[in-house]
Amino acid sequence: MNSQAITFAEVEPQDEPELAEDEVHVWRFRIQKPELVPESLMATLDVGDRNHAETFGDAASKRVFMTARGATRFILSLYTEVAPRMLRFGRGEHGKPFLKMDDAPQFNVAHTFEWGVVAVTRSVQIGVDLERIRPMPDLSRVARDHFSRQEYAHLFSLPEDVRTEAFHACWTRKEAYIKALGGGVAIPLKSFDVSLEPGAPAEILGIEGSSEATRDWTMLAFEPAPDHCGAVAIARGGMRARGFHFPPG
């Protein structure tokens, strides 16, 4: 089991970032940044994107989807040498998106109403999750319903002033793992254990009661902005990470 934190580069990456087999690239972008919604970004969306955007019931959710999809298209074009608008997406059995092309990079996307992230690997399964850290009046009930017994006990062994942060760390790590597998709600959140203590490395501690299977995974934690936390899970041990901003610079 490999774990590390991700630091986002403050310098402009190469126009075509080289992605090694043992690397994951995590790109962050701001949803509410005006310069992220120019015509050039919206022009990357195809008919399917625009039709899907219309299914959202409010303008804010529509904007979030369109910004995230446009940023995703631009980022993935760097790895595929295909124009952003020409990229074609499919969905797995439980809705996980993938690129319809030979030798396509693996990717996953997550966002709040303020920030988004796109994680990319060369060929291995990947999942990413992002949450805004916010007060949780029903924290105990949600943790009891979705965390394993070990996670719940660990959460409530921590000082009260760090439990909200620890809850969100646990949640993002569990969601990232499930998204990497592409199993959606078919995978019980209680069927595996993750680390959650603030400041501790992100780790998958056990899967279905066994610690052996964790050797095949890398889990990484990141903080894209104040009051946000995220995690990425990759189905291969020993992966290295690089973080980038979008737009670059």
Instruction: List unreliable stretches of 5+ residues.
Output: none
Number of strand elements: 12
Structural class: alpha+beta
* Cα distance spanning the termini: 33 Å
Mean pLDDT: 87
Summarize the structure.
With 249 residues, this protein is an alpha+beta fold. It has 6 helices and 12 strands. The mean pLDDT is 87.
Q: What does it look like?
A:
With 249 residues, the chain is an alpha+beta fold. It has a single domain (2-37, 99-245), classed as Ribosomal Protein L22, Chain A (Alpha-Beta Complex), CATH 3.90.470. It has helices spanning 39-42, 47-53, 59-80, 139-146, 149-155, 160-181, and strands spanning 2-6, 23-30, 89-91, 97-99, 106-111, 115-121, 126-132, 192-194, 204-207, 218-222, 228-234, 240-245. The strands form 4 sheets. Strands 1-10-11-7 form a 4-stranded mixed β-sheet, covered by helices on one side. The protein has a 4-stranded mixed β-sheet with strand order 5-6-2-12, covered by helices on one side. A two-stranded antiparallel sheet has the order 3-4. The longest helix is centred in the N-terminal third of the chain and has 22 residues, at 59-80. The two termini are 33 Å apart. The model has no long low-confidence stretch (mean pLDDT 87).
Could you outline the blueprint of secondary structure elements for this entry?
Blueprint: E1 2-6, E2 23-30, H1 39-42, H2 47-53, H3 59-80, E3 89-91, E4 97-99, E5 106-111, E6 115-121, E7 126-132, H4 139-146, H5 149-155, H6 160-181, E8 192-194, E9 204-207, E10 218-222, E11 228-234, E12 240-245
Parallel strand pairs: 1-10, 2-12
Antiparallel strand pairs: 2-6, 3-4, 5-6, 7-11, 8-9, 10-11
